[in-house]
Amino acid sequence: MIRRVVAYADGGAVAASRDFYTGVLGFEAAMEDPALALVAPDTPSAQVLVLPPGTEDPPPRFGVDLGEPGAVDSAHAEAVRRGLRVVYPLTTEPWGVRRFFVEDPGGTVVNVLAHVR
């Protein structure tokens, strides 16, 4: 089940981006490290992640939260079965996210993730 799709913004000016998304658009900062996560107060599935320069290589264009780590494992297995290019390996990150990056057929890098409970 897809829980949310997270848009990723360039983080060339993280503090200014935080001010823009909170002050102009009304998002709330939900996380500051390792990236700035902004959440819409009335719609928590509406999020923007501001990645500081050099955080990810290659940088994903957006993230898809599948809700459960097992779903991430299944998506990874299917991507590999289909011969898609996995550009960041299946990993459980120290900040509590299981994820991998895969390149879609058009070349867009997608972060497929779920929070570990």
State the helicity in percent bands: 10-25%
Structural class: alpha+beta
Global shape: globular
Strand order of the largest sheet: 2-3-4-1-5-8-7-6
How large is the share of residues in beta strands? 35-45%
Sequence of secondary-structure elements: EHEEEEHEEE
Major sheet: size, sense and barrel closure? 8 strands, mixed
Q: What is the fold named in CATH at topology level of the largest domain?
A: 2,3-Dihydroxybiphenyl 1,2-Dioxygenase, domain 1
What is the CATH H-level superfamily of the largest domain? 2,3-Dihydroxybiphenyl 1,2-Dioxygenase, domain 1
Radius of gyration: 14 Å
Unreliable sequence segments: none
Let me know the average pLDDT: 93
What's the N-to-C terminus distance?
16 Å
Number of helices: 2
CATH architecture heading of the largest domain: Roll
Highest-level CATH class of the largest domain: Alpha Beta
What's the domain count? Answer: 2
What is the tally of beta strands? 8
Organism: Pseudonocardia ammonioxydans
Pfam family, one: Glyoxalase
Protein name: Glyoxalase/Bleomycin resistance protein/Dioxygenase superfamily protein
Domain VOC: 1-115
Structural features, described:
This protein is an alpha+beta fold and 117 residues long. The chain folds into two domains: 7-55, Signal recognition particle alu RNA binding heterodimer, srp9/1; 57-117, Roll (2,3-Dihydroxybiphenyl 1,2-Dioxygenase, domain 1), CATH 3.10.180. The protein has two helices and eight strands; from the N terminus they run βαββββαβββ. It has an eight-stranded mixed beta sheet with strand order 2-3-4-1-5-8-7-6, covered by helices on one side. It is globular. One of its GO terms (molecular function) is dioxygenase activity. Keywords: Dioxygenase, Oxidoreductase. InterPro entries: Glyas_Bleomycin-R_OHBP_Dase, Glyas_Fos-R_dOase_dom, VOC_core.
